[in-house]
Amino acid sequence: DAGVIQSPRHEVTEMGQEVTLRCKPISGHDYLFWYRQTMMRGLELLIYFNNNVPIDDSGMPEDRFSAKMPNASFSTLKIQPSEPRDSAVYFCASSPGTSTSGELFFGEGSRLTVL
Amino acid sequence: TQLLEQSPQFLSIQEGENLTVYCNSSSVFSSLQWYRQEPGEGPVLLVTVVTGGEVKKLKRLTFQFGDARKDSSLHITAAQTGDTGLYLCAGARGTSYDKVIFGPGTSLSVIP
């Protein structure tokens, strides 16, 4: 069975450029999450969706970040304009969502470097 | 402020040794999970504990949830090189996913 699929795996861009990260969750999972991981701050929840609807985006750093989920099988996280401090590994995860003790299934991550 | 603390931050041991890593908080959790993350990959769930005092075993790994549901430990017996990775604990403080927080992790290196 396919897991959570993220693209690109690596992205190097220059400050000011737009970055779009993509995620395909596991089929049938009702919840989709975007996390950011850095050495300094660990894993931070940016936003999560339930049935394609954003439920909580309080973790989104600022207006430069936006996320969409146009359908049950696709989500994007966009950064515009990007800044060096956005450099991190961005993870997408999905869950069947029966409870908060349920398993989060993570993708392999997108490593973003902003020069 | 880290709501979930993990110790030690780094651990390097010889193959065959035993070790324990800890996850602590001043908050009470409704459930707590342990994940292992290997380099270049996403975290993978190892176990979920929900009852205070609960002990779960997964082969050579033993997980314990504190009686007050504020802390947890992971004990590995006879560590193997395949145990190398970042061990993350994640606590749920309510019924919504924004109440799930991750600790900073313990980076374990098992040397042959």
Characterization of this structure:
The complex is a heterodimer of chains A (115) and B (112). In chain A, a hairpin with a 3-residue loop joins strand 4 and strand 5. Chain A has strands at residues 5-7, 10-13, 19-24, 31-38, 42-50, 53-56, 65-71, 74-79, 88-95, 105-106, 110-114. With 115 residues, chain A is mainly β. Chain A is 0% helix and 54% strand. Chain A starts with a strand and ends with a strand. Chain B is mainly β and 112 residues long. Chain B has strands spanning 5-7, 10-14, 19-24, 31-37, 44-49, 55-58, 61-65, 71-76, 85-92, 100-102, 106-111. Chain B is built from no helices and eleven strands. Chain B is 0% helix and 53% strand. In chain B, strands 2, 4, 5, 9, 10 and 11 form a six-stranded mixed sheet that branches. A five-stranded antiparallel sheet of chain B has the order 1-3-8-7-6, with no helix packed on it. In chain B, strand 9 and strand 10 form a beta hairpin. The chains are: A mainly beta (115), B mainly beta (112). Chains A and B meet through strand 5 and strand 9 of A and strand 4, strand 5 and strand 9 of B.
